[in-house]
Every structure is written in structure tokens, then in C-alpha cells.
Amino acid sequence: MQFNNLRLGFLMILAFAASKTSAVQTNQDAVLIAAGDIAVCEAVHRAEWTARLVEKLLNRNDAVVVTLGDNSQNDGRFEEYLKCFEPAWGRFKQKLRPSPGNHDDYDERPGLGHGGKAYYEYFGDRAGPPGLGYYSFDLGYWHIVSLNSEIVVNRPTPEQAQRMQSQMNWLRRDLSTHDNHQCTLAYFHRPMVSSGQFAAGRMRRLWEVLYARGVDVILNGHEHFYERFAPQDHRGNLDHRFGIRQFIVGTGGAYFHGFGRPTPNSVMAIQETLGVIQFVLRPSHYLWEFIDIHGVVRDAGVGECHGKPEIF
User: Fold this and answer.
1) What is the rounded CA–CA span in Å between residue 118 and residue 76?
2) d(CA 36, CA 17)
3) Residue 280 main-chain phi, psi, to 5 deg
4) For 177-200, what is the HEC assignment?
5) pLDDT recorded at residue 273
6) Residue 277 to residue 209: CA distance in whole angstroms
7) How many CB atoms lie within 10 A of CB 7?
8) What distance in Å separates the CA atoms of residue 29 and residue 178, rounded to the nearest whole number?
């Protein structure tokens, strides 16, 4: 216990030092900025507010910007990307690495790959292979995985089951191929757990693979608020040794959702606030800040990367 307290104290010192020198990157740092649930056509100014924040952060540090789904919060039509998303977040399109949400193909159901054509047309190769909605890339010392939560469904048809299995097989191969990375972050739209109305327990299928391979951080949107969880396993049990820390950052511009009863292991919840999360990714640990559109840091901390649980 004493060792763990000393280690936590050391990491908090690192976090404090990083907050004082955030404008200065070392060659071992990488910066990642994220938010989901972005462009509402009847309220584009809300996405513009978060875009201005992202622009300020990019002026301080070179960074990759990932989107956590529902980039187009209406129906995912191509004209909506052009008229609603493009004027705000389109200014740093070459920095974007998106993931799809349910609204990104709302008018072309069922499921990305069958629909969502405008999503792939707008983002191009930034969205990975057309029709899949999942891909990965390296960022500094970290491996980053973007997944498609929209093809993980309950009671799938044979075709849907095949698509789900294809993503799972790809994910296992990808994480095995990049097993030399000490630190891994995954992001996709729907959260497995949430204190809101839209938790998707079926995401446990993805979590089981991610947990088994030692993934450190998961980022989600879908709920229009910010929520951070203590490290958990794929069953939602607290696990400070190998658990994944989940962040919900559905704060990119969409209208707000309210909270329900707090979910176990929820440790920070912020509602009615637009903003983005910024990570400084280092070789063995990471620092995060949730920053609102006024530039105020509303949540911050530091976490260590870890290995794979022995039971797998």
C-alpha cells in the first residue's frame, strides 16, 4: 500500500509538471484531442465553439484529433457534413481520425458498410478502409485503435454476425501484431457503462478483447456529457491493476443529455458543458485534461500503462 501511494504521488508530480509546461513537447510526447457528438445543423454555433477550442490547442501543440462518433448529429447526409460539420471542425480535417456513430448513417440503415456512404466520402482515407469503420495507427509510443460500435448488435442476422466477427478477428490480430507497444488507447461511439440513458452492454464483446490485450484507455461518446470511470475489467468490476479507464466525452456540440443514477465506478461526471479532452501520451503513462470551451480545465489526472492480465 505504501509503495502504491508513493507511485501515485510521483505520477501526480509528473502531472503537475506537465500542466506547467504543456506548451513544450519532448520527442517522447504525443498529444491526442478528442470529443464526440459534434455537429447539429440547427445549432452549428455549438460545434464552432468547440472547434475554436481545438484550434487553440493545436496552436500550442501538434496533435491528432479523434472524433467519437455522431460527427453529423442529424442524419449523416453528405450535405450535412458540408453545411454543418465542415464550417466548424472541417478546418482541421487533415488532423482528424474519426469513428462512426449511429447518426453518421441514420438515413441509410442498417449499419455502416450498408449505409453511411457520406461518412466515408467526406472523411476519405482518414476513416480507414471504406465500409469497415475500424482501423488503427501509431502515435508516438502508443498504439491507437478506432472501432465501429455500430456493427455490434444484439440478436444479429447472419450477415451482421459475420461483420461483427470480422471486426473481432481484425481486432485480435491488430493488437497481437502491435504487442510491442506498452500503451494502447481505443475509441468508439457507444459506451459499455454510463450514468446516462444509453449505455450499451453489448460493447462488452469489444471490451473483453481490449481488456485481455492490456488496453489502457477507452474513449466514447453517445451520451452528451462528460464522465470518467475508475479502471474496470470487461464485466464492470473495479480493477486498479489491469483495468481500462473509460472516458465519455460526448461534448463536441450536440444538445445536452442529463444524468440518471450514478453507475458503479463513476468517479467524475460533468453535465451541460461543451469541451474536449486532451491527452499527453508518454512512453509509460498518460496525462489527461477535460477542457471546457472557456479554456477551464474541469477534470485532470494521470494514469500508468499496464500489461495484460494473467488470467488471459
Assistant:
1) 7
2) 28
3) -105, 115
4) HCCCCCEEEEECCCCCCCCCCCCC
5) 98
6) 25
7) 11
8) 19
Q: Output the CA–CA distances (angstroms, integers) from residue 213 to 117, 157, 172, 182, 309, in the order listed.
A: 32, 28, 8, 11, 8
pLDDT average, residue stretch 37-64: 97
Residue with cell 465500409: 131
SS3 at position 10: helix
Query: Using CA atoms, how far apart are residues 250 and 258, in angstroms rounded to an integer?
Result: 12
Helix (H) or strand (E) holding 277: strand 275-281
Q: For residue 263, report the phi and psi dihedrals to the nearest 5 degrees.
A: -85, 145
pTM: 0.90
Which burial class, exposed, middle or buried, applies to 33 when counting CB atoms under 10 A from its CB (0-12, 13-18, 19+)? buried
d(CA 4, CA 260): 33
What region does 76 belong to: left with phi over 0, alpha with psi -120 to 50, or beta? left
- Residue 14's SS3 state is helix
Please state, as a whole number, how many other Cβ atoms lie within 10 Å of the Cβ of residue 279.
24
In order of 53, 259, 287, 297, the CA distances from 278 in angstroms are: 11, 23, 8, 10
Q: In this predicted model, what pLDDT tens digit does every residue of 237-270 receive, in sequence order?
A: 999 999 999 999 999 999 999 998 899 999 999 9
What cell numbers appear for 106 in the block? 441514420
Rg (CA), the chain: 18
